[in-house]
Amino acid sequence: MKGDFMQTFGNYLKQLRNKKNLTQKELARLAGIDPSTLCRLEQGSRKPTPRMVRKLARALEQPLAELMARAEMKQIAENLPVFAERLHSLRKLSGLTQEQLAEILDCRKSVLAGCESGRRPPGYLLSLKIASYFNVSLDYLFGLTEGNKDGNQAGLTVEQEVVLSILKNLPWLTCKT
Length: 177
Description:
Layout: H1 9-19, H2 24-31, H3 35-43, H4 50-60, H5 64-71, H6 73-78, H7 80-93, H8 98-105, H9 109-117, H10 124-134, H11 138-141, H12 158-169
């Protein structure tokens, strides 16, 4: 079996349903969706809408963020090289080693190294931590936008904003006379 991140949303949904010992008909009823729609979702012939994902998450008692991330996993996998390059660039510009950033993000260095090399997709929570730490959007990290965040009024590049952020956080040296 390929890595967990390569599973389709449909396979993951079926796995969750089976874990709860539910039939397709039972899950469809609990989620308030048509059984034929659920069947097509599990087969991978239909992409879930955000509303469907919310209903399924509630019915399966699963975190919405996890199910939403799984629904978008194909797009995430396709944008992994961009994510890896941007993560590497942001880390280097901030002057951090992988060890230092891993400690800041509360993850293992091997996980961060895998994300930075493009061999491993970041989990949803790690993606959020990275975006928050570097003050960039998830859309930017995954290459869906060129701008790094909403509201960048100065028109700065990500690299310029990172440098500016570092400079703002440097302790000012005081002269003692």
